[in-house]
Amino acid sequence: MPKNEEYFLVRSDILPEVFVKVMQVKRLLNSGKARSINEAVQVIGISRSAYYKYKDSIMPFYETSKGKIVTLTVSVENFPGILAGIIQSIAFAKGNILTINQNIPINGLADISISMETDRMTRSIDLLVTDVQKIPGVRSCRIMARE
User: Fold this and answer.
1) How far is CA 102 from the centre of its chain?
2) Within 13 Å, how many C-alpha atoms sit on residue 105's CB side?
3) Dihedrals φ, ψ of 58, to 5°?
4) Residues 9, 12, 14, 18: what is their CA dihedral angle, to the nearest 10 degrees?
């Protein structure tokens, strides 16, 4: 983080509409209600360029991710190599995995919980979630918790 950055706590009702809409897009993506950034910005009604311009500059007061621990919950189909692909995506983003818990597959699906440090990540956690969702066999990926 550059030393000259300042942060302010501002009520959402006085922000320009584009900032509120960027947050709505982020919530759709994190909740899994939208499968892609393109889908989410269309639902909310902003351009992709507006989303990309502001996505790393606005976040909820209670949800900062830099320098924190994030837990992802991923639902996957049961076939060899899918966990390796998820780990590779996290490694590419420079996330530091702390724990991985995978449940026994039931009806061909398994749930995976991954806790990781985000302080050295080169990509936003939202982009990482999007990357993981694109892996063949991943049914869903969402942020379960942030510390």
Assistant:
1) 19
2) 11
3) -130, 135
4) 110
Higher pLDDT, 3 or 43: 43
pLDDT tens-digit series, residues 114-144: 999 988 888 888 889 999 999 999 999 999 8
The topology (CATH level 3) of 69-146 is Alpha-Beta Plaits (3.30.70)
In the chain, CATH 3.30.70.260 covers: 69-146
Q: How many residues does the chain have?
A: 147
Report pLDDT digits (tens) over 96-121. 999 999 999 999 999 999 999 988 88
Q: Is the separation of the CB atoms in 126 and 29 below 8 Å? A: yes
pTM: 0.58
What backbone torsions phi and psi does residue 102 show, to the nearest 5 degrees? Answer: -125, 130
- Strand runs labelled E in the chain: 69-77, 96-102, 109-117, 138-146
